[in-house]
């Protein structure tokens, strides 16, 4: 099939004269496959596209790439837009420093357009720094990303984890801290893990080596924790923890700083995670259960004396800080240190003899300083509403934090616990954009059932509500994930051209605790879509914009969101960008770690009612085919996405292109040597956003002014 598919694409391209013509698309590989769910037969004609290594699929991919590139290449301002976006990305970025076991301060830094940030270290937070590890030297094209660093407790070694081409598969390497020399130790086929150091080695989590050719699509099962002793091959690593009775569980190891205990967190089959602990000081000790279920979230904060401190949503939907005896940590022995508050407890770390707890209130962060006994000492004031991340240590009182908001690039501060003062340590500067000309406000709008939904709006101060403003509406709404304010240099080109950036905090997220999350899961999932549709309607009804000027975008679970609401209300939007989305809700659980999403979605195998509910909104299965005009759509995916496999986007795009949905373009952008998005080199990020904004501006009839 390769030759005819490719030739048809060449013929299509030859016939395309402008981006305003209705596009013709390559014929996708198809068959007569059907599935039956509790008596309901569901066709799946594009099942062959699930085989991403088949010759016919590869040919279709190349044909689609040709169509997409031809379309985008004829947008006259594409190159200038790339130049502008590249310029906005070309500023110095620096991460929060942390003081490690060798007494030095480590931090990440990117002086502009390096594909990956470089790790530096210095004797003092603001002292002369030297390069410790440069990930840009790990690959020529920047597609090898540094995903984690951990130092042995004696300070002699650092284990670092990498991802290749954006995959979730992890490799672990070890270097000598002083010399920077790479040791021979090399771990492969690890996943969702870092290195948890203990004595002369470390624990890590991994799956069995996958079948060749199916590394990025087959389901992952039996996540084990191994122990690797330095200087030995991976083949000699021993299993430290496994659960053969539950092959779909995740297992993550954490070792306390004093190496007295090891915790294993168990997830994958519930909203939260279970937890067990092992006393490492006693060779005869057995695993003791802290929490057996996965119904609640548990996060390790530290070991203080003989007590384990952790955050939990058990008996506290907005979470609390508790402690439990190391030797008998069952829930009956938990003691509340800081009870549940009005805001959601989203972060906790130990700083000397204090805790820093961060609460989320109306999608914005509010940190505070607490003593070890749970007494609140002071609020930590932030520059404006936004997002903050803290770097602390139980061994000293130094506190560093990063702060960011929509108009506030990530800056680094030191915090003095005695005076309560924050002092800037690093402040970025973006040339050519005056943040003072813009404003962010928060609004609350009613969803279909009357629930008030918060939304942030960022725009030029002199903008008028005349119904003609272009709006970029973004949402996610799932997996207990919050969308606090954040900064993106790629967004600036939208703002400077008169666009409004709207970020809706939909149900399904964590903004108001577990109740808010569950209100957007399983057979409540339509709440999420209704929340997003209501956001668009609010922007129209309040005079900000109109359907002809409205763009929606979301990634992953947010890609599902965009696909679903486009089917539900194609009249409401002019452009839709579903990125790396979960588009086949009937089969998502059969690929890689898709089964892990069942607590949020339910599966088509659960029950007749659940299967019908999923089928009722699945983006792939609800594309209208009756001539109803759809917005211009650009689907995005990547060839190494092993989280939401590209088959989702392949099948959705093929079905979309086949259906009668009007003349607006329906194209798919398939990135190469890239994954779900994490660790993507800056060059690929700039290329992707250049294409996204080129597509948006073109289909809104706008020519960007700079």
Describe the protein in words:
The protein has 706 residues and is α+β, with helices and mostly antiparallel strands. It has 3 domains: 95-343, 7 Propeller (Methylamine Dehydrogenase, Chain H); 344-429; 436-700, Rossmann fold. It is built from 11 helices and 39 strands. Mean pLDDT is 92; it is low at 1-19.
Chain-averaged pLDDT:
92
User: What summary fits the major beta sheet?
Assistant: 8 strands, mixed
- Tally of distinct domains: 3
Secondary-structure arrangement, i.e. CATH architecture of the largest domain: 3-Layer(aba) Sandwich
**CATH class membership of the largest domain:** Alpha Beta
CATH fold type of the largest domain: Rossmann fold
Number of strands: 39
Rg for CA atoms = 25 Å
Strand order of the biggest β-sheet: 32-33-35-34-36-37-38-39
Counting helices, strands and paired strands, the structural category is alpha+beta
- The N- to C-terminal Cα distance equals 44 Å
**Into which percent range does the helicity of residues fall?**
10-25%
Low-confidence stretches: 1-19
User: In percent, how much strand structure appears in the residues?
Assistant: 25-35%
Overall, the morphology is globular
Q: List the total number of helices.
A: 11
Identify the CATH homologous superfamily of the largest domain. Alpha/Beta hydrolase fold, catalytic domain
């Amino acid at each position: 099939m390769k030759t005819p598919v490719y030739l048809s694409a060449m013929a299509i391209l030859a016939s395309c004269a402008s981006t305003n013509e209705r596009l013709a698309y390559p014929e996708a590989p198809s068959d007569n496959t059907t599935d039956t769910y509790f008596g309901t037969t569901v066709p799946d004609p594009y099942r062959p596209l699930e085989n991403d290594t088949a010759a016919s699929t590869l040919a279709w991919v190349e044909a689609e790439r040709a169509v997409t590139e031809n379309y985008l290449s004829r947008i006259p301002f594409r190159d200038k837009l790339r130049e502008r976006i590249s310029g906005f990305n070309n500023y110095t970025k620096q991460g929060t420093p942390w003081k490690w076991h060798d007494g030095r301060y480590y931090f990440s830094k990117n002086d502009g357009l390096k594909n990956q940030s470089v790790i530096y270290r210095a004797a003092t937070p603001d002292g002369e720094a030297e390069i410790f590890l440069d990930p840009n030297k790990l690959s020529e094209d920047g597609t090898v990303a540094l995903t984690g660093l951990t130092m042995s407790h004696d300070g002699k070694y650092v284990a670092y984890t990498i991802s290749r081409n954006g995959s979730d598969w992890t490799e672990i390497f070890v270097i000598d801290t002083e010399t920077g020399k790479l040791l021979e130790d090399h771990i492969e086929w690890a996943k969702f893990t870092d290195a948890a150091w203990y004595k002369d080695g470390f624990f890590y989590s991994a799956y069995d080596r996958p079948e060749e050719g199916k590394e990025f699509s087959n389901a992952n099962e039996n996540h084990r924790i191994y122990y690797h002793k330095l200087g030995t091959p991976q083949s000699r690593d021993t299993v430290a923890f496994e659960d053969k009775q539950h092959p779909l569980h995740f297992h993550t190891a954490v070792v306390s700083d004093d190496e007295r205990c090891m915790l294993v967190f168990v997830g994958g089959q519930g909203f939260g995670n279970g937890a067990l602990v092992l006393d490492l000081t006693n060779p005869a000790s057995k695993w003791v259960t802290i929490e057996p279920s996965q119904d609640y979230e548990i996060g390790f904060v530290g070991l203080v004396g003989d007590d384990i401190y952790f955050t939990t949503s058990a008996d506290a939907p907005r979470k609390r800080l508790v402690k439990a005896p190391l030797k008998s940590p069952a829930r009956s022995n938990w003691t509340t240190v800081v009870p549940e508050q009005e805001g959601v407890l989203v972060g906790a770390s130990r700083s000397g003899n204090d805790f820093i707890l961060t609460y989320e209130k109306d999608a914005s962060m509010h940190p505070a300083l607490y003593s070890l006994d749970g007494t609140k000492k002071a609020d930590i004031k932030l520059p404006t509403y936004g997002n903050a991340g803290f770097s602390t240590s139980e061994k000293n009182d130094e506190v560093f934090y990063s702060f960011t908001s929509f108009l506030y690039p990530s800056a680094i501060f030191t915090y003095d616990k005695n005076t309560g003062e924050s002092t800037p340590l690093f402040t970025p500067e973006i040339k050519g954009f005056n943040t003072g000309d813009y404003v962010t406000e928060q609004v609350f709008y009613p969803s279909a059932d009357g629930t008030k939904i918060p939304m942030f709006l960022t725009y030029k101060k002199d903008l008028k509500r005349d119904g003609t403003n272009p709006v970029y509406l973004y949402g996610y709404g799932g997996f207990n994930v919050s969308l606090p304010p954040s900064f993106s240099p790629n967004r600036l080109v939208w703002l400077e051209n008169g666009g409004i950036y709207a970020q809706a905090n939909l149900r399904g997220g964590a903004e108001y605790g577990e109740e808010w999350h569950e209100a957007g899961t399983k057979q409540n999932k339509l709440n999420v879509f209704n929340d997003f549709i209501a956001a668009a309607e609010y922007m129209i009804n309040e005079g900000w914009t109109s359907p002809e000027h409205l763009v929606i975008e979301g990634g992953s679970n947010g890609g599902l969101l965009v696909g679903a609401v486009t089917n539900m209300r194609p009249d409401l939007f002019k452009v839709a960008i579903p990125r790396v989305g979960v588009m086949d809700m009937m089969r998502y659980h059969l690929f890689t770690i898709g089964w892990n999403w069942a607590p949020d979605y339910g599966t088509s195998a659960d029950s007749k009612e659940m299967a019908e509910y999923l089928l009722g909104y699945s983006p792939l299965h609800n594309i209208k085919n009756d001539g109803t005009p759809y917005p211009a759509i650009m689907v995005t995916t990547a060839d190494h996405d092993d989280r939401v496999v590209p088959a989702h986007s392949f099948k959705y795009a093929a079905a979309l292109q086949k259906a009668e949905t009007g003349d607006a373009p329906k194209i798919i952008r398939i990135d190469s040597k890239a994954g779900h998005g994490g660790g993507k080199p800056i060059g690929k990020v700039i290329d992707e956003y250049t294409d996204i904004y080129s597509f948006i501006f073109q289909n809104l009839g706008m020519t960007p002014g700079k």
